[in-house]
Structure to design on (884 residues):
């Protein structure tokens, strides 16, 4: 059965054609060298086979021109491989700014995804075609890896910090995703399906769920924010002992040591876990660590809530964000 | 072609290292490097068999998409124990500790290694480490993957991790001691006239390998010790819940384990560099380039480790630097391949078994090396990292390269080691069987990887089945290829024909003494006054007439 052996996996993202052209180039270069060397060995093997018992070979010791050629030529070719590969990779590691952000949490042995409106899925991921998608990856336990062969992308999911993975689906359909970093007993079944939908279908899918409304992650985050007493110090009008979080997300924050840092998901996560790692200029290191007190889901809810404060007015004093770098 | 010589029937020498003394004590307490090589030969063959049985079970299990044989837990233990047994207890010691131990003193014209007692100690250290690991296998097994990634290994795994990391920690000292022994031996014990650039290329390769042993092994020892301490005493080195960094473990692990790949392949390259000139009967092409490339690989090999971490979230700049450096380490390997091929030009090539292994090695190493370029390519690694493509790539290097080299070397030096010939026809059949079986086993895995099958899966989607069945079919051919030499080598020790001192003939110093050699290796300390791999000026080999001073030259040197 032909369909049993699809040598060529689907090409369903912006990266798939890029990775495949790179693959083709590498295969051609490798095939060239493999054929040349193998042909030379086979030719010499028969051409110069021993003809009499006492025959010896010609006393050739080397040739400097040949040595230089076969050092320089492979070097140049390998630099092309390096450069081309680097171009694709650098693009892959820099998500576009206006992406659709979806949180994905891996744990032994399942995947949980959370859409921007709070809709949750398990071992499923729905995305609209043609839109830049950014997955923010977190792990509850060991290292996992989110891998979609049809998109030609993967990224490790490492406990303790966030990795991001972006792609732009180009073809509607259902595609396998796998866990690609060995994570224990049921590693092989820790996978699922990505469903790429037309944008209109995606929009109606997104709003169709009953749970979406009552699981609004912003509301959940706001609730946590007061339950965990964050709101005691982080007061919106800048009058608290800690910086106001209004407008912080995505902005620049000036630190006590004079440097600045972009307030992205990783920064916020780090501030929760290791609050003394980066102290905002003008504030005291008073915050306790929340290490071990929040689940990955709760951290994500808090981040979503802080993200929702992006549009709130930034106070003149007591702001966390650098006013000049306003977004 | 039949074997080259219709030689006179040799008889075994009257006194040699094998019959110098008898009894179990004379072996277990020996300080003769040749007997220690035997101790290692038996031990590594044992671990190879253990690892091989695990591999066979893995391939049988993967015949069906749902898994045919074992539970997920057991499957995970099988591939972990396969990796640990093969990497740490077979591949790393195989050529250095068996062939290197036997040959280095003989090749440089020495009576023994510099520290014979330490040499015996390294074997006992290896066996002690091996016992801990076997204890781990027997008492619950090990399911962390041979890479021991944290926090899986240090916190979450329920298997016998602690004895395994202790075993590998102990075993590391065996490598370090062997490395020091070889470096000192090569520096201080060369016979008169054996200059650095007259050294056999096998010795150069062993020297480069020993450098990695000495510099790299302490790092893996420390790394696994930290993981063990984290597991036993709950110290937070790598566990993020305690403020540790799981990626730090990967940096430390690969700082050793990538150079360890060169520990496995460099000695095999050394073997091939010996075999090819012997069976082409001409000097090796570009001696200095091959020697220097061994050192270059050993040195640059220490600066490429983070190419295993392109997708862990490490900085883009770091990824760029490590990709570039990984391409640089490929150049010296390419230089070797080109030089070996050029050596065949205008040779007098025979089809003896070691040559079949050496040529097979070039072909398989070529594919293994080139596919390494795919993985070093940042853009491509996004797709093929942690898939079967990686599995296929490193088996081409470690099995196609290192084991073909090891078997080629065993066949080449077997007459020297035992004084006996093995059945040539059967040996050629085995070599060809191995080559075919190997390609059928691991070739389809490149495709599986490109199609997206992740590694370490106990079951898989049905679209991957055809290629998995092909791979298992290949593995059964491969198994025959491994069993044959085990059988006829064992047979030949007792029943093989006496080989004579130099059956091929070859130019190295080890071939100027009896087979098997006497305990003190040489009757008198040899003096070297010839260049390596020179057949033309070696009338003592019986191939060319002695040069008469007045002979008119019609040649054009």
């Amino acid at each position: 059965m032909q369909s049993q052996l699809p040598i060529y996996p689907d090409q369903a993202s912006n990266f798939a054609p890029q990775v495949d052209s790179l693959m083709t180039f590498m295969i051609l270069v490798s095939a060239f060298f493999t054929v040349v060397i193998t042909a030379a060995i086979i030719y010499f093997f028969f051409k110069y086979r021993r003809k009499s018992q006492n025959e010896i070979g010609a006393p050739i010791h080397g040739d400097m021109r040949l040595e230089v050629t076969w050092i320089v030529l492979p070097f140049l070719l390998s630099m092309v491989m390096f450069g081309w590969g680097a171009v694709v990779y650098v693009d892959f590691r820099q998500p576009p700014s206006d992406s659709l952000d979806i949180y994905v949490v891996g744990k032994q042995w399942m995947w949980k995804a959370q859409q921007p409106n709070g809709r949750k899925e398990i071992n499923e991921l729905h995305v609209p075609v043609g839109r830049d998608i950014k997955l923010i990856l977190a792990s509850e336990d060991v290292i996992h890896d989110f891998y979609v062969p049809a998109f030609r992308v993967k990224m490790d999911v490492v406990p303790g910090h966030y990795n991001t993975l972006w792609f732009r689906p180009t073809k509607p359909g259902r595609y396998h995703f796998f866990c690609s970093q060995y994570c224990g007993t049921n590693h092989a079944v820790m996978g699922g399906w990505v469903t790429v939908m037309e944008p209109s279908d995606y929009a109606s899918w997104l709003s169709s769920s009953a749970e979406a409304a009552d699981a609004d992650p912003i509301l959940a985050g706001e609730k946590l924010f007061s339950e965990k007493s964050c709101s005691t110090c982080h007061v919106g009008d800048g009058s608290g002992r800690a910086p106001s979080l209004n407008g912080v997300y995505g902005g620049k924050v000036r630190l006590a040591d004079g440097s600045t840092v972009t307030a992205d998901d990783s920064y916020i996560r780090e501030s929760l876990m290791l609050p003394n790692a980066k102290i905002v200029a003008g504030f005291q290191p008073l915050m306790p660590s929340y290490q071990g007190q929040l689940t990955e889901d709760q951290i994500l809810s808090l981040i979503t809530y802080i993200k929702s404060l992006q549009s709130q007015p930034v106070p003149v004093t007591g702001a966390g964000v650098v006013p000049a770098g306003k977004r | 072609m039949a074997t080259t010589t219709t030689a006179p029937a040799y008889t075994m020498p009257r006194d040699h290292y094998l019959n110098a003394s008898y009894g179990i004590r004379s072996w277990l307490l020996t300080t003769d490097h040749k007997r220690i090589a035997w101790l290692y030969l038996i031990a590594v063959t044992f671990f190879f068999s253990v690892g091989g049985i695990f591999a066979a079970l893995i391939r049988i299990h993967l015949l069906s998409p749902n898994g045919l044989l074992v539970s997920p837990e057991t499957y995970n233990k099988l591939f972990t124990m396969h990796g640990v047994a093969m990497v740490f207890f077979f591949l790393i010691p195989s050529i250095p500790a068996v062939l290197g131990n036997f040959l280095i003193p003989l090749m440089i014209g020495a009576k023994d290694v510099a520290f014979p007692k330490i040499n015996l100690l390294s074997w006992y250290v290896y066996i002690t480490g091996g016992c801990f690991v076997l204890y781990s296998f027997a008492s619950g097994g090990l399911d962390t993957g041979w890479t021991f990634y944290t926090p899986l290994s240090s916190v979450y795994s329920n298997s016998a991790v602690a004895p395994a990391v202790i075993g590998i920690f102990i075993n590391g000292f065996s490598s370090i001691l062997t490395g020091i022994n070889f470096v000192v031996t090569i520096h201080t014990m060369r016979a008169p006239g054996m200059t650095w650039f007259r050294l056999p290329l096998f010795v150069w390769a062993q020297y480069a390998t020993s450098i990695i042993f000495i510099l790299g092994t302490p790092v893996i020892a420390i790394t696994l010790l930290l993981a063990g301490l984290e597991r036993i005493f709950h110290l937070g080195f790598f566990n993020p819940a305690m403020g540790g960094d799981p990626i730090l473990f990967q940096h430390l692990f690969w700082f050793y384990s990538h150079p360890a790949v060169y520990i496995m392949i460099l000695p095999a390259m050394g073997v091939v560099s010996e075999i090819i000139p012997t069976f082409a009967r001409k000097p090796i092409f570009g001696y200095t380039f091959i020697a220097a490339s061994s050192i270059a690989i050993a040195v640059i090999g220490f600066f490429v480790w983070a190419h295993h971490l392109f997708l862990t979230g490490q900085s883009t700049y770091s990824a760029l630097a490590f990709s570039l450096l990984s391409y640089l380490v490929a150049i010296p390997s390419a230089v070797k391949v080109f030089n070996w091929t050029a050596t065949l030009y205008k040779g007098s090539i025979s089809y003896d078994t070691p040559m079949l292994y050496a040529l097979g090695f070039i072909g398989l190493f070529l594919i293994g090396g080139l596919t390494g370029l795919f993985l070093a390519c940042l853009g491509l690694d996004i797709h093929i990292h942690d898939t079967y493509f990686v599995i296929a790539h490193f088996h081409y290097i470690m099995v196609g390269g290192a084991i073909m080299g090891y078997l080629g070397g065993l066949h080449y030096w077997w007459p020297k080691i035992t004084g006996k010939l093995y059945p040539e026809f059967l040996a050629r059949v085995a070599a060809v069987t191995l080559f075919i079986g190997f390609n059928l086993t691991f070739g389809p895995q490149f495709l599986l990887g490109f199609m997206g099958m992740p590694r370490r899966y106990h079951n898989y989607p049905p679209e991957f089945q055809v290629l998995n069945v092909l791979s298992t079919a290949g593995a059964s051919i491969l198994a025959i290829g491994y069993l044959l030499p085990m059988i006829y080598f064992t047979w030949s020790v007792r029943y093989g024909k006496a080989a004579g001192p130099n059956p091929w003939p070859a130019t190295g110093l080890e071939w100027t003494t009896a087979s098997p050699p006497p305990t003190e290796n040489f009757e008198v300390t040899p003096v070297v006054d010839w260049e390596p791999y020179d057949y033309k000026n070696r009338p003592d080999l019986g191939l060319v007439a002695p040069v008469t001073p007045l002979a008119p030259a019609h040649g054009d040197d």
Q: What stands out?
A: The longest helix of chain B spans residues 72-108. The radius of gyration of chain B is 24 Å. The domain at 24-541 of chain B is CATH 1.20.210.10 (Cytochrome C Oxidase; Chain A). Chain B is about 65% helix and 0% strand.
